[in-house]
Design a protein that fits this description.
Shape: globular
Strand order of the largest sheet: 3-2-4-1-5-6
CATH class: Alpha Beta
CATH topology: Rossmann fold
CATH superfamily: Phosphoglycerate mutase-like
Helix content: 25-40%
Largest sheet: 6 strands, mixed
Oligomer: single chain
Order of helices and strands: EHEHEHHEHEE
Number of strands: 6
Length: 231
């Protein structure tokens, strides 16, 4: 049976200035992590958890990693980084740091499976991470297919609003808020068929924390149809 997926947007970070590379969380962001922890952890711990989480996946960026560690780092759940969950744009604030630096900074996280091209998303080698509608929607399907094959009962993913909204779910996520989804069926998709997920009723309006916009958007909304110029 495919896992339930808990999709979390990172807490507020210091990237109102888009020129700051791979920014860390703000003071408010750290407080938001406490709210996330207080709300979600009781649902995934204890003798009869509502959601039995066996894995936490993070975008390999400081704000997502810090959010995961502050909210869930003391639960003893394995945590691994995955480049497929990174943010869309090529602004410095949305471009990651070298994996070697992140390994040193965050030893609690397994970086072994991060795509070797990371953080490149502007050269031919990084084409799958281009900031284009085609690339982002394809990446959204790829990460969903990867999750669908997992054997854990439930998986937390800490990612970014732009990618989660336009590439994966068509839903809005405010900082540190989350939504819970199940795969519509467990069968393997036929060629060209999209992986479908359905949100659970208790997060479908304004998210688990009640901080997010209720309205849905179409996948690909706001994304450019043009392929970016290569470096």
């Amino acid at each position: 049976m495919s896992p339930t997926i808990i999709l979390v947007r990172h807490a507020q970070a210091l990237h109102n200035d888009y020129t700051i590379p791979d920014p860390e969380l703000s003071v408010l962001g750290r407080a938001q992590c406490n709210s996330l922890k207080e709300n979600l952890v009781p649902r995934i711990t204890g003798p009869n958890p509502e959601l039995e989480v066996g894995l936490i996946i993070v975008s390999p960026m400081r704000r997502t990693i810090e959010t995961a560690l502050l909210a869930f780092g003391d639960l003893g759940i394995p945590m691994e980084a995955h480049a497929g969950w990174q943010e869309n744009s090529i602004q410095p604030c949305d471009t990651g740091s070298p994996v070697a630096a992140l390994r040193s900074e965050f030893p609690q996280v397994n970086f072994d499976l991060v795509d070797p091209v990371y953080p490149d998303k502007t050269s031919p080698a990084g084409k799958k991470y281009f900031n284009s509608k085609q690339a982002i929607m394809a990446r959204g399907q790829e990460v969903l297919k990867d999750l669908k094959r997992r054997k854990e009962n439930a998986i937390i993913v800490v990612s970014h609003s732009g990618f989660l909204r336009a590439g994966v779910t068509g839903r809005w996520y405010m900082n540190a808020d989350y939504r819970v989804f199940d795969f519509v069926d467990d069968s393997e998709e036929k060629e060209g068929e999209l992986v479908k997920i359905k949100e659970r009723d208790w997060t479908v309006k304004e998210g688990g924390l009640g901080w997010s916009f209720e309205e849905a958007v179409e996948l690909g909304d706001g994304l450019s149809d043009e392929e970016p110029a290569l470096n």
